[in-house]
């Protein structure tokens, strides 16, 4: 399938390839005359932001992350960081809201031998986003209280393309709606010397780890005394998703078939976020599995639960795939089982 990549320098290329005597409406025109279309820069939230009222674009965005750096600028440190599935926080109306899906983040600076021009960069991104059917939904400074509520770790503090939430620098947030469930968020923060961009696409996580059935759980417990399960919970919560309930039912089958079997249910997380919070979350998730099994009729004295946060990873937390392997529930066969 043909892949189209929209470059932010497109409008400038049109000028260079056209008759110089013919007047063109370009990114350069916008940079030189920012007041020519000042209404475009007004966040829609000031007019009562409602995502349901934002039109769906028919434009082809190309391949994620969709936007190259503007001409005469570069994404530094290898061109930014792209993840297949991540959690990115988007500020709208002062509230940092998580968006789950593919993500891209990068620092932007002037290319070698070029001068950084903040207004040029701002207008280049805005012109391209608007040309693709996008709108600005916010331009605001995120409060310290809101940053503290979410936590520095979840905001990628110090990571590639992270934002400065502590210097009263506003963040521009744009949205491109391709359908009710397919939405692209672009965040931009610039200063007089450099900038940062974060792009998040709302999407579904495509699980690559399959559900273990009851017979395999039993085989692992008999062979190794331990079974590793990947049970789906709501993000940053201990509530089981429907697929998680299905996994619990498989555990229930094993326990119901062998009434002498006693197990420890141990929760584990990856290293994303706050370590103390991860420890609590892992304990809560293990307890949720235990509670669900008790509700199905398993005697509570046959079950104990605990959590270890990110302290016992199966593999290094260096990729999203590895992190998915570390987010798990382990069943440990207790020694006093028959």
TrEMBL record:
Gene3D superfamilies: OmpA-like domain. Its main location: membrane. InterPro entries: Bact_OuterMem_StrucFunc (IPR050330), OMP_bac (IPR006664), OmpA-like (IPR006665), OmpA-like_sf (IPR036737). It holds the Pfam family OmpA. It comes from the Bacteria. It is found in: Cell outer membrane. SUPFAM superfamilies: OmpA-like. Residues 21-43 are annotated as: Disordered. Keywords: Cell outer membrane, Membrane. Residues 220-337 form the OmpA-like domain. GO terms for cellular component: cell outer membrane. CDD domains: OmpA_C-like (cd07185). PANTHER family: LIPOPROTEIN YIAD-RELATED, STATOR ELEMENT OF FLAGELLAR MOTOR COMPLEX. This is OmpA family protein. It comes from Pedobacter psychrotolerans. The lineage of its organism: Bacteria, Pseudomonadati, Bacteroidota, Sphingobacteriia, Sphingobacteriales.
């Amino acid at each position: 399938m043909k892949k189209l990549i929209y470059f932010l320098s497109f409008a400038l290329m049109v000028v260079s390839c056209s008759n110089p005597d013919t007047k063109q409406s370009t990114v350069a025109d916008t940079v030189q005359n920012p007041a020519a279309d000042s209404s475009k820069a007004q966040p829609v939230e000031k007019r009562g932001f409602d995502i349901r009222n934002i039109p769906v674009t028919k434009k082809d965005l190309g391949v994620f992350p969709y936007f190259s750096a503007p001409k005469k600028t570069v994404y530094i440190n290898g061109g930014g960081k792209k993840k297949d599935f991540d959690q990115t926080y988007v500020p709208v109306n002062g509230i940092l809201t998580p968006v789950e899906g593919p993500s891209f983040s990068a620092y932007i600076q002037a290319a070698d031998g070029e001068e950084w021009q903040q207004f040029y960069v701002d207008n280049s991104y805005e012109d391209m986003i608007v040309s693709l059917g996008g709108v600005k939904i916010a331009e605001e400074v995120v409060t310290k209280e809101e940053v503290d509520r979410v936590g520095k770790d979840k905001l990628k503090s110090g990571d590639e393309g992270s934002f400065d939430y502590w210097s009263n620098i506003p963040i521009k947030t744009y949205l491109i709606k391709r359908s009710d469930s397919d939405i692209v968020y672009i965040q931009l923060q610039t200063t007089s010397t450099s900038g940062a961009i974060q792009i998040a696409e709302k999407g579904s996580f495509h699980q690559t780890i399959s559900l273990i059935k009851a017979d395999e759980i039993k085989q692992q417990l008999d062979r190794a005394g331990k079974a590793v399960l990947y049970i789906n919970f709501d993000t940053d919560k201990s509530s089981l998703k429907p697929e998680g309930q299905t996994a619990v039912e498989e555990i229930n089958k094993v326990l119901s078939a062998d009434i002498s079997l006693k197990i420890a249910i141990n929760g584990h997380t990856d290293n994303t976020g706050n370590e103390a919070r991860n420890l609590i979350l892992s304990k809560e998730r293990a307890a949720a599995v235990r509670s669900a099994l008790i509700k199905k009729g398993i005697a509570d004295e046959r079950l104990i639960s605990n959590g270890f946060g990110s302290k016992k990873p199966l593999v290094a937390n260096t990729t999203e795939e590895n992190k998915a392997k570390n987010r798990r529930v382990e069943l440990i066969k207790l020694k006093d089982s028959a």
